[in-house]
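hey
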């Protein structure tokens, strides 16, 4: 799905700000039929849970309603008019006045509707958006809903981060011509010193297409005719980790010689390949340093915030990180665009987290049922998972920063049923995008020799917590056990291995001269132990610490005000481990020839 852009033939209006807001209830009936009768206002973009000082809103299960009045710019006469929602967690409905125009299930990918026939340039309309946070065994991510003895609806979710909900990303009104670019797909390659840009343009009607490629200075460096083809860029400037270079692919659509639409797509020319036990970018071995992260800040929840966007990337640059995983859902498109412009490498992940009922029944205290079954993960779940993969790739396929698709985090792959579930999903991912490696993230409960699906994937991504959940406080035993398992994976598969999670909960300001869990010293020693092991494994291609920053979770016996594994606090203050990581990662960056933008010398 094309992201709306302002071009010579298109305009857009961001509808962010304060919207009328209400919980769905017996008193709030058909809220799209009239002005919402409420005194509450909610900010967009933002999760609604922590904005109000009201437990009933924070813990609400079900639909909520956002509403505002919108005026269509009077200059849009003769244009098609669309409303687009960047994300509604986890289900959305859009109404124009009292007319339902769009429905979507899936909390982290966009949806839109053509509303041309329902609105008029220069006139106002009432825009109502319903958002439902309910999760079931057939949603991605999954969950379960119960009703307690007091008649209160309760949501159990199977992931270890807070189930923030609402309109966490922007809402847009935009115009486009009737005959227009409907989609653009770009695949890049390298031929000697030249770059090859293969493109495919989908149109809403037959028309003539010209594609021009402009360099960063706006000079034309290639041109082609037709809706699909190849443009050769002589002496190409490659997009590289830490040294991003973007070209503009400008699509021009003409009918009878007249320009009817134009759309610009940023392009980074680079190649990605798995060869033996190496992960290659532009034919050179790449070593991932960085984090699993979360879209999570105080008050806003998962609400996108440009200030935090810039600050978080600045901290990742300071610490020497060159990459991150969008754990455990697709991030806002603005995040990927920033990564494109600044040379960060991204593992892009679906929202398939929690497909593991053994973790739910043990770690999270949920039902003791098999992961795969008619009342748990079933054919409907698999269909929802497939749709999540389709939408992820459709949205993010053109980002040069995205080098690998992760289709699930910590699913139950220790049982035979996992293979029948995942094999068609891997095939679908490769069919949709044969150019990028495919992975999933393996949980400790499915170690080497127990896991049933890793042979299907290109890269082994492992989450391991030796020294924290296992061998707690005993780093000597943890080091031996971690190395033994990693060597087993290496011997069995010979594939690139990436540690996508390793970490220890740490209370900022808690200190000890001993190896005491929860102290800043223990977190640093724990990470150092892992690094010694990584450095001894030839197939190791990277390390993503869990987590970039402390984040909110459901409150429970093992979580007090969230997960504390961040090397930065939730308000982005560094713990001692951040300085240790900076020393290691800047040295690794220099060793691998990365530019100064990601190797600012450690002090």
């Amino acid at each position: 799905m094309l992201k709306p852009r302002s071009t010579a033939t298109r305009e857009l209006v961001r509808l962010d700000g304060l919207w009328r807001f209400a919980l769905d209830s017996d008193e709030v009936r058909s809220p799209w039929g009239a002005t919402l009768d409420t005194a509450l206002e909610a900010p967009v973009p933002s999760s609604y849970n922590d904005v109000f000082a009201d437990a009933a809103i924070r813990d609400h299960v079900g639909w909520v309603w956002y509403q505002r009045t919108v005026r269509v710019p009077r200059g849009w006469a003769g244009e098609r008019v669309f409303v687009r929602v960047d994300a509604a967690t986890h289900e959305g409905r859009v109404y124009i006045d009292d007319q339902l125009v769009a429905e979507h299930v899936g909390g982290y990918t966009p949806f839109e509707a053509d509303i041309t026939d329902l609105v008029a340039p220069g006139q106002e309309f009432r825009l109502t958006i319903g958002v439902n946070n309910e999760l079931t065994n057939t949603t991605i991510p999954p969950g379960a809903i119960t009703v307690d003895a007091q008649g209160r609806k309760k949501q159990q979710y199977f992931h270890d981060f807070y189930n923030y909900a609402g309109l966490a990303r922007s809402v847009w009104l935009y115009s486009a011509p009737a005959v227009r670019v409907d989609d653009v797909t770009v695949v890049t390659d390298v031929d000697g010193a030249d770059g090859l840009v293969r493109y495919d343009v989908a149109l809403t009607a037959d028309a003539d297409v010209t594609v021009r490629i402009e360099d960063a200075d706006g000079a034309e460096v290639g041109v082609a005719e037709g809706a699909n083809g190849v443009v050769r860029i002589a002496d190409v400037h490659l997009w590289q980790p830490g040294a991003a270079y973007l070209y503009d692919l400008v699509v021009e659509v003409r009918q009878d010689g007249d320009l009817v639409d134009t759309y610009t797509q940023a392009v980074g020319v680079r190649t990605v390949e798995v060869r033996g036990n190496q992960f290659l970018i532009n034919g050179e071995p790449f070593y991932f340093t960085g984090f699993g992260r979360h879209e999570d800040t105080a008050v806003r929840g998962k609400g996108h915030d440009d200030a935090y966007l810039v600050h978080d990337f600045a901290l990742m640059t300071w610490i020497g990180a060159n990459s991150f995983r969008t754990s455990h859902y697709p991030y806002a498109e603005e995040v990927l665009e920033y990564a494109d412009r600044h040379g960060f490498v991204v593992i892009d992940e679906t929202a398939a987290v929690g497909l593991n009922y053994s973790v739910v029944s043990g770690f999270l205290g949920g039902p003791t049922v098999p992961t795969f079954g008619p009342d748990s993960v079933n054919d409907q779940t698999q269909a929802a998972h497939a749709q999540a993969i389709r939408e992820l790739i459709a949205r993010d396929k053109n980002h040069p920063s995205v080098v690998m698709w992760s289709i699930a985090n910590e699913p139950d792959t220790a049982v035979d049923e996992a293979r029948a579930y995942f094999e068609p999903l891997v095939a679908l991912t490769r069919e949709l995008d044969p150019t990028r490696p495919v992975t999933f993230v393996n949980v400790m409960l499915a170690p080497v020799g127990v896991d049933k699906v890793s042979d299907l994937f290109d890269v082994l991504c492992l989450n391991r917590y030796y020294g924290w959940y296992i061998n707690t406080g005993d780093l000597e035993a943890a080091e031996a056990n971690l190395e033994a398992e990693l060597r087993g994976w290496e011997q069995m598969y010979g594939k690139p291995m990436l540690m996508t999670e390793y970490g220890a909960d740490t209370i900022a300001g808690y200190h000890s001269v001993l190896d005491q869990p929860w102290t800043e010293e223990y977190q640093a020693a724990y990470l150092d132990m892992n690094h010694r092991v990584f450095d001894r494994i030839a197939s190791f291609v990277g390390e993503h610490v869990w987590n970039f920053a402390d984040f909110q979770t459901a409150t429970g016996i093992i979580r007090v005000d969230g997960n504390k594994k961040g090397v930065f606090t939730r308000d982005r203050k560094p713990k001692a481990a951040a300085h240790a990581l900076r020393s290691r990662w800047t040295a690794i960056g220099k060793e691998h020839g990365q530019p100064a933008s990601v190797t600012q010398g450690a002090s």
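The first strand starts at residue 11 and ends at 14. Residues 180-285+338-416 form a domain with the Immunoglobulin-like fold (CATH 2.60.40.10).
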